Amino acid sequence: MKLSFFGAARQVTGSTFLLELDDDYRVLIDCGTDLSGKEKTEEPDDSFGLFPFDASMVNLVLLTHAHIDHSGQIPNLYREGYEGQVLCTEPTLELAEILLYDAASLYQRKLKAIEKNKKYSKKRRAVKSGPYYLSAQVNYAMDNFVPLAFNKRFKFKDNGWVTFLPAGHLLGAAHILIEVENNGKMESICFSGDIGRRNYPLLPDPYPVPEVDYLVCETTYGNREHEDDEVAEQRLKEIIQECCIEVPGRLIIPTFSVGRTQALLYTLNKLYDKHEIEPIKVFTDSPLARKSTEIHEKYSRYLNDEAKEIKRLDDTLFDFENLHYLKTNQESQSVAFHNEACIIISSSGMITGGRIEHHIAENIENPYATILFIGYATEGTIGHKLRNKELSELTIRGAKKDVNAKIRSTDVFSGHGDLEDLTYFAKQQNPEKLKKVFLVHGELESMLNFKTVLESEGFDNIQIPEKGEVFEI
């Protein structure tokens, strides 16, 4: 077999791995968008088009979970000639659908802006014909998604089986176990996908993976432990008490619409239900988050035991008396005139577009406002600069603003397992049986640290692939 690494190699984004079996059957595991900003906008020189491989020669796609850095290039894969199926779990199918349509809508707006630009150049035409896609391409791709159940061994070819194992991290997210029989001998490889953290709100703990011959393991938090060891309810209660009750103010929370928003609303619902905080108004300002919340309600059977019990007793996981969903832009903008203490939840989590920009612009100069970051923000984004308190002023929505609002952060809602969780996941394997470990989906510093930790646990033959590197396994 051959294993090629075309994304998430020495970086945290763009997961794309190609497994070529001995009979030339080709399985693509994830097909994600590179969100690092490192990709060139020019049309690629490679003769295969958008991908460094011939999309028409791929036989099957396996999708670990719905996040765009794992699923975002699937419509383009079909555009480039792929004709097979995408296998994933039921929740992943529905979450991927709303995320891909949202991406197509964003691309359409970008393309319109390009076409209106008076300096519309050859380079911009290359962008237009490059990695962007529209709703029609998403329609075609989604027609070929096929859902599989967790923990059911599925035969995808005469001598090949795949099993999706719960990974935590996001509703429907999976570790992917592939088993192939050659000459009476079984070989196995596991792709971790993104590994969730244990005891996370809403989601079950990552499922143990059976012993395999090869392991492809993510390393996002391979060099750090989570800072906050409190349970999410207690930490959030403390922050709300300080920012909205002791001194009546506004708590603005930039967050991601799919996954993180639901964990936050679920925790707020429990706090309100137990009457542990005053009934402050909560505004949720993201149409995509509303759709994602509905999908989480629909697939509550995939959540952890606590969430399933709350769903059984209350018939809802996310709704409470003072929760208000903002549908239109006009409703979103009107929140600026709300003169009581409140909580505003909006996307994107890195403040890289979306309605959150309006709320930041309206509140950044307010000393009674607090901006709470609950997730990772890529270096160079407004979110990263604010979270790290690098700015005394910023320009947002065309206006220069002083940073007078308080800046807070917590990682209790981080969906990625930390170093302890990653080590726990890897130690389910037998170092004497495991032939090779490949470290992916992390910055090089994280990978090197995690490699050292694994070596101290008795693992050897650990590889840190470069982008485009191919291994015989």
From TrEMBL:
Transmembrane segments: none annotated. Pfam families: Beta-Casp (PF10996), Lactamase_B (PF00753), RMMBL (PF07521). Residues 261-386 form the Beta-Casp domain. Residues 13-235 form the Metallo-beta-lactamase domain. Keywords: Hydrolase. InterPro entries: Beta_Casp, MBL, Metallo-B-lactamas, RibonucZ/Hydroxyglut_hydro, RMMBL. GO terms for molecular function: hydrolase activity; RNA endonuclease activity. It comes from the Bacteria. This is MBL fold hydrolase. It comes from Arcticibacterium luteifluviistationis. The lineage of its organism: Bacteria, Pseudomonadati, Bacteroidota, Cytophagia, Cytophagales.
